[in-house]
Amino acid sequence: MNLRNALLVAAALLLLATAAVAGTAQEKQASGGTVDSGSFGIFVNGRRVATETFSVHAQAGGANTIASELKEDGGGAAQSSELQITSAGVLVRYEWHELAPGKGQLEVTPKNDFLVERITANPGDKPAEQPFLMPNTSVVLDNNFLIQREVLAWRYLASSCTTEKGQMRCAPAQFGAIVPQDRTSTRLSVQPVGEEKITVHGVERPLLRLNLKSEDEEWALWLDPQDHYKLIRVTRSGDNSEVVRD
Question: What is the C-alpha separation between 21 and 246, in angstroms, rounded?
């Protein structure tokens, strides 16, 4: 798939009200439907420790939904999230739920053009509020959910990449983001690296690499240009973890 088609898919999923939408992507946006789903395996020192199951759903005339469930292998901790955003990239609602061992939950919604988070430690407790002086178009990049990094990558491609004489050209970009589980906001920078040949599940594949940097973390993301720029692999600088699409 060429960059133009990838940007159409990105625009249909997330994103920018001014993006041009045509072909299959336009049909998906018009009728609604699941545009990505699957799972990521999370590995530490080569051993699988958790699995994230996710879906990205484009809703005709409404909010796009990015849902995820993360479970430790062996029946340990589990949590889920659901992000709803409009086709213009405006946050409608973000929810996080602890499924095990506790029952904590949080919700982020717009309030007077900014954002407010409501945290409930235990069922029945009165929620605590955490305001964010961040616009309602801020990126949600919560702990542990890799699909939210795919959403960010698509948003970056749609807003910061063009084609010139058939060649893809991307500029560095910055995004404001919130990390709801940490109750913090951060500044993200995305730096294009280019195509790299990466071995995934024993097969060498040409993937597009982006570097993602926050105030205290650095990530490398690899996307598949042949399949709607879906996220295939993620690593984090300074540790032995790796995330790979199943």
Answer: 29
Please, are residues 101 and 120 in contact by the beta-carbon 8 Å criterion?
no
- What confidence tier does 14 reach under pLDDT thresholds 50, 70, 90? very low
Please tell me the distance from the alpha carbon of residue 111 to that of residue 54, in angstroms, as a whole number: 28
> Could you tell me whether strands 91-100 and 105-111 are parallel, antiparallel, or unpaired per DSSP bridges?
antiparallel
> Using CA atoms, how far apart are residues 141 and 212, in angstroms rounded to an integer?
11
Domains contained in the chain, number: 1
Residue 82 vs residue 121, higher pLDDT: 82
- Contacts for 206 with CB less than 8 Å, ≥ 6 apart: 195, 196, 197, 225
DSSP 3-state of 86: coil
What digits encode the pLDDT tens for the residues 95-116? Answer: 999 999 989 999 999 998 899 9
Comparing 57-71, 139-153, 177-191, the range with the smallest average pLDDT is 57-71
First to last CA, the chain: 21
Expressed as residue numbers, the domain containing 96 is 3-245
pTM: 0.87
* Rounded Cα–Cα distance for residues 230 and 154 (Å): 8
95-121 b/e with 16+ CB inside 10 Å = b? bbbbeeeeebbbbbebeeeebebebbe
